[in-house]
Inverse folding.
């Protein structure tokens, strides 16, 4: 039996369900019991934002330093190749 035939045999709901407002939202009866957000929670979010900003700056600075180091190493490697070619031409 294929999937289409199997789906036709399945029972249907009497009325289509409404689209939920939020997939992660609370049920209506739980929203009345939910605690109000406190200033402590807002402060922790502010602290999280600050730490995230600082971490992003650190990552960007590290990337810049790594790029500079890679450029220096590449230049050193090119200089070494030029010196090797110059030495072989002298012989």
């Amino acid at each position: 039996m294929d999937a289409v035939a199997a789906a036709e045999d399945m029972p249907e709901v009497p009325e289509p369900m409404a689209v939920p407002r939020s997939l992660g939202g609370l049920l209506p009866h739980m929203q009345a019991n939910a605690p109000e957000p406190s200033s402590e929670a807002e402060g922790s979010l502010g602290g999280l934002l600050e730490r995230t900003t600082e971490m992003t700056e650190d990552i960007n600075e590290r990337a810049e330093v790594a790029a500079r180091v890679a450029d220096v190493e590449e230049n050193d490697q090119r200089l070494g190749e030029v010196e090797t070619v110059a030495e072989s031409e002298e012989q």
Q: What stands out?
A: The radius of gyration is 32 Å.
